[in-house]
Inverse folding.
């Protein structure tokens, strides 16, 4: 059996290795990621995330419950990330980011997400461990998020016109209207200026912070095991770039994904509230089964109902 410190070390080593592999080998060239490559990479990253659950099982003295908990957390985080891909598409469209630079923008956005999410997770776990009644608060937040997810309007390019990050950056620094390759800063007429790619990354960072307020409580509703919460988040995020390019043209077909996500958030939020009064009422394996069932039904309904619709109607 590997102790918890050893598992953390293995985890961080794997993350460094995969990041190096991604940026130094797989995506070394500055080019648009073709669909076939993106699909294969998506399967690769998802298989890595699923395989890590087996490592958790083996390193935890064959603890089946801990492995199932990891899979439940990973599934929730992955589904919420996919639902947020539409916003990424709008952000890139707003800034007119060339396809070959989008991978770099996502990469730096994810690096920031890894840091901020760790801080959120540590704070969330500490709150739940110190104040048990916070389970009711977090559960209520998830139920509210579930309702908001279902009824919210989709983002549009115009919604970023008054974005605080964009306005703030334009006030404190010179911003170029043109790209200079994939550089974040350029020099024009002897003046150093930020490029639209820099602004795009800043907006992606802020967008992920907003997403984290939804996704972190959702995973904490499943477990307060810091390692499981963080590792499931990281492996879901690692594959997000490839999944983005694989689903970029098909995201509109997942029309009903938000309803499935809303149902999942409502379920785990309700479970969290009930757990305060009846600990262990719903076992983790049952939670995972409910989550996977809702996900499968949602995807099936989405693909079935949009199968014969023209792209412009989706």
């Amino acid at each position: 059996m590997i102790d918890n410190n050893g598992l953390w070390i293995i985890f961080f080593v794997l993350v460094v290795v995969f990041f190096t592999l991604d940026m130094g080998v797989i995506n070394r060239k500055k080019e648009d990621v073709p669909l076939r490559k993106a699909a294969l990479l998506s399967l690769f990253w998802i298989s890595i995330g699923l395989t890590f659950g087996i490592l958790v099982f083996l390193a935890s003295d064959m603890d089946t419950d801990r492995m199932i908990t990891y899979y439940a957390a990973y599934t929730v985080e992955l589904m919420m990330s996919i639902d947020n891909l539409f916003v990424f598409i709008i952000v890139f469209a707003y800034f007119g980011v060339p396809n070959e630079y989008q991978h770099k923008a996502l990469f730096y956005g994810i690096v920031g997400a890894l840091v901020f999410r760790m801080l959120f997770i540590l704070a969330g776990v500490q709150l739940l461990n110190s104040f048990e009644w916070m389970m009711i608060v977090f559960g209520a937040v998830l139920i509210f998020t579930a309702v908001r997810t279902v009824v919210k309007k989709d983002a549009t390019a115009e919604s970023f016109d008054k974005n605080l990050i964009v306005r703030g950056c334009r006030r404190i620094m010179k911003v170029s209207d043109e790209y200079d390759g994939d550089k974040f800063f350029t020099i024009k007429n002897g003046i150093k200026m930020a490029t639209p790619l820099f602004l795009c990354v800043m907006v992606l960072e802020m967008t992920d912070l907003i997403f984290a307020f939804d996704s972190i409580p959702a995973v904490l509703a499943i477990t307060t095991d810091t390692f499981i919460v963080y590792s499931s988040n990281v492996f879901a995020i690692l594959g997000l770039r490839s999944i983005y390019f694989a689903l970029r043209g098909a995201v509109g077909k997942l029309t009903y994904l938000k309803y499935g996500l809303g149902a999942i958030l409502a379920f785990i939020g309700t479970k969290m509230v009930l757990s305060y009064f009846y600990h262990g009422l719903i076992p983790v394996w049952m939670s995972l089964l409910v989550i996977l069932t809702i996900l499968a039904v949602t995807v099936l309904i989405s693909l079935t109902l949009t199968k014969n619709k023209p792209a412009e109607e989706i």
User: Anything to note?
Assistant: Strands lie at 185-188, 191-194. The longest strand covers residues 185-188.
